[in-house]
Amino acid sequence: MTETIDPADAPPIGRARTALFRRLIDIVALPASRLAHQDRSMAADILLDMLFHADTESRQLCARRLRDSREAPRRLLRYLGQCSFDVAGLVLQHCPAYDAVDLREIAEIGTAEHRLAIASRKTVPPVVTDYLSEFAEMHVVKALLDNRGTEISEISVDKLVVRSRQMPELCAALMERLETQPSHGMTMFWWADGITRRKILQRHAADRLEVIEMCAEVFPMAVEEKWADPVARKALQLIERRQRNRAAIDKSPYDSLEDAVNAGVTDGLTNELVQEIGYLAGVKPVTIAKIMSDDGGEGLAVLCKATGLHRDFLKVLWAALKRPFRMDEGDIHPQFHLVSETYEMLTVAKAQTTLRYWNWSLSSAIPTSGLKNLRSDDQIANDTAQYSAAQRTASLVFGD
Predict the structure, then answer these.
(1) For 4-22, what is the mean pLDDT?
(2) Separation CA 390–CA 287 (nearest Å)
(3) What are phi and psi of 326, to 5 degrees?
(4) Coil, helix or strand for 215?
(5) pTM of structure
(6) What is the pLDDT of residue 103?
(7) Fewer CB within 10 Å, N side or C side of the chain?
(8) Higher-pLDDT residue of 175, 330
(9) Structural element, H or E, at residue 141
(10) How many domains does the chain have?
(11) Rounded distance, CA 161 to CA 195, Å?
């Protein structure tokens, strides 16, 4: 770290020291073709010792001269990078000689300004992005995500998805990264804004036709075993082609899913009716409750399209939830307009995949002891390897 010098105690700086200091910088900055490695190393050791006793202006001079150097010894560059930011800022963002270990050490020791400069470098190695993603510094993380020269590991994306629940403005930036996987997008959907939700559905909703075809022979086996294996049953519920629960119709007091949705307007959308709609739609109570209680409402569009409900029933559900359909001026309410556009945008196959993924991830990982035993954000962020995609999603959506 920088040694603080009290100007009152410092000896006067003579011409010899100033000249030597500048000459040593010139030597260290020479290209490899002009100077032997051993000479550069010795000159850098002397220069570093002099920097301990230098003022800010002199350190800035050194940093400016070495900012583009590939040959300057990294011990010298690490010192400059750990100085106060008015010095470090001259080298951190541009100097190509730093390696991943150097940058991570500087990020640990430095301030948010140091970390922002590192996040804005032309290239940022994964070990550095992983460390920067642990900080709750929005401007640093945003610069990291916006920087196309960064290499973000899946572990880093996992951590940033966890952070995004408390910092939802990260969702849009994460959706622009190629490293973001469908499991990340489908999890962030529940706290992302409307524009980001649409991107998630456009980018991550799949038709799963290849998966269905490859696994087709497994379904008769599961039927023959009477769906006795819970692990296979939960996995196949994500892959299965049909969405509505036809067996539930025989036990339902309603003639169809459409009949149950209409009852929401005439009789009121009670908890019992919400669960019944969920059973008829082929989703678990926890999934239908999440869709119905979601403020944005895009989940309703997914539900209607996936189950084959006509667009008119989207209006019926909207009315049953007592949400505004028109503005005071008579225009369509912008939120319903957004939800309606989401319905039109989705294909049935992609809507089914989305609904099935939600149902699988939100319900299959809930502990038998209930929601209260779900993992916390910190547990998941700090131990990403211990949880499946479904466990992560359920814990982030329903956890504290």
Answers:
(1) 73
(2) 13
(3) -130, 155
(4) coil
(5) 0.76
(6) 96
(7) N
(8) 175
(9) helix 138-146
(10) 2
(11) 17
